[in-house]
Amino acid sequence: MIRASLLIGGTLLLSACSSKPDVPVLAVESQQLHQRVNGKGQDEFAFVVTVKATPQMKLDTSKPVSRRELKRFAEQQRVEDSPELKLQLEDEAVVRLKKALKEARYCESGYKIERVFWRDRSVQLRGICQ
Fold first, then answer.
1. 110: exposed, middle or buried (Cβ count in 10 Å: 0-12, 13-18, 19+)
2. Contact assessment for residue 101 and residue 107, using Cβ atoms and an 8 Å cutoff
3. Which of 32, 51, 95, 107 could bridge 111 with an S-S bond, Cβ 3.0-4.6 Å?
């Protein structure tokens, strides 16, 4: 009975350790809301969210590289290189845009995001008020 409990406990522990690593949390460095009226008289906005830089991990190739180091290097994600992190940043920007527009009392009747622009560590959402 004790042996079976230890076996089950060990199996659960091993399966927990071998699970896929969590997606890193993006640290927002800054956000800016720009507002203007276009030539057609519509209220427009541009909202830019920039995340802090993730240092790129370097491998010391002058000595043998362990499997653990190689695995960490392969799993490291930077927003500049990762479509998954870019989508995560875009989702975060949409949430922050809603809050920023509410605080600025801008686009109170609603808004529509028309374009999304990417630069290294930032995303820009452009749209119009409805």
1. exposed
2. yes
3. 107
